[in-house]
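Memo to structure team: turn this sequence into structure tokens by end of day. - J.P.
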Amino acid sequence: MRTVYLNGEFIAENEAKISVFDRGFTFADAIYEVTAVLQGRLVDFEQHLKRLRRSLGELALSLPVDNDQLLAIHRELVTRNDLHEGLIYLQVSRGVEDRNFSFPAAGTPPTLVLYTQAKDILGSPLAKRGMNIISLPDLRWGRCDIKTTQLLYACLAKEQARLRGADDAWLVKDGLITEGTSNNAFIITHAGAVVTRELSQLLLPGITRSALIALINEHGLRLEERGFTIDEVREAAEAFITSSTSFVYPVVNVDGQPVGAGQPGPLTQRLRQLYIEHALAAAL
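Reply from structure team:
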């Protein structure tokens, strides 16, 4: 049985209780972060912390612990749960109050919860066989750059993908792909350019996306940050996704049509290995 962290205490998961009046439950008035764990260490933790603080600021949410305390909580959860490889999920909500659209009174304590989840990240089958993707309209709210817990449309899109025999969906707005349901989208052109959508309020500033872009630049590869269409995906040499718990997964099929050779491409595989080397070297 896992140990979780809830509002200042490390307790057994079956003893963790959150009020039915918590605003994370009633309004999805909450943000979250997910940090990968490799060899018992935290991957890109400082970048996750920076994005967490940005999301908090955008929603005028507070956090009851400072950065050092948050790092200590993560490490304690890794130790108590003997987590070698997987993730730590963090969620903070605006706290508990009778249902009311207005924010609660100043000083209302936020709710902070963290828990671990074991996962085979390095040996994932999707990294070897590649992903099948469908395209769907992007019907999410206009601030996808904030990592909120209101993920209903992402769940609906993932379910549509499952029902159609695919692994995930890429979302399209005004003819251009914004991102995946829980990942950033990339293509590689036949000229060798790595292409991904530029950051805006339409997509999440992915931590793995950012780290991979730095590696692309460091290794002298060509990067283009711009929108691209489904037709460009079909005509691309390779495609892939990035996220904090998949790192880099190849995309081999979109809407029933193969991408490139219809199998994980060489540059995608190289980029995945570069990111894994980065993650192992920089993990805390």
